[in-house]
Amino acid sequence: METIEREENVIRNIYEGNIDFANRTFEKGSEYAENIHEFCRLEEEVYQLLGEHNKAKAEELISSILSLESLVECDSFAEGFKMGTRMLMAALYDVNAKSIYKK
User: Fold this and answer.
1) What is the spatial distance between Cα 55 and Cα 97, in angstroms, rounded to a whole number?
2) DSSP string for residues in 6-34
3) What is the 3-state secondary structure (H, E, C) of 36-86?
4) Which of 25, 47, 76, 80 is the most exposed place for a label (fewest CB within 10 A)?
5) Contact 57, 46 (CB under 8 A)
């Protein structure tokens, strides 16, 4: 029964917005950390090339790209969740599935 309660708490926490999948940490030296570092380095380099008068437009472009990426991630998460749920439902309710175990 404890497992069910824990699962219900996770579902409730997702519903109430207590679980933030975007708010996560990463390990120093990880591939993610290296990519963030490289992004920041390139961002500063581009800003220097553009000069102050074009910096705002570059920031607007980056913000737009990040917003689009967030939408794609959300959609991918939702589609993956649905696919996983369909797989579970198919496994649970496939009455014609053959099994090596006696029913």
Assistant:
1) 61
2) HHHHHHHHHHTT---TT-----TTSHHHH
3) HHHHHHHHHHHHHHHCHHHHHHHHHHHHHHHHHHHHHHHHHHHHHHHHHHH
4) 25
5) no
CA 47 – CA 53 distance, rounded (Å): 10
CA atoms of 32 and 23, how far apart (whole Å): 14
Place of tokens 């689009």: 68
Distance CA 55, CA 40 (A): 14
Question: Which amino acid belongs to residue 1?
Answer: M
pLDDT of 6 higher than 60? no
| pLDDT tens-digit map of 7-32 | 567 778 878 888 776 677 778 889 98
What Å distances lie between residue 6 and 2, 3, 9, 17, 101, CA to CA? 6, 5, 5, 16, 30
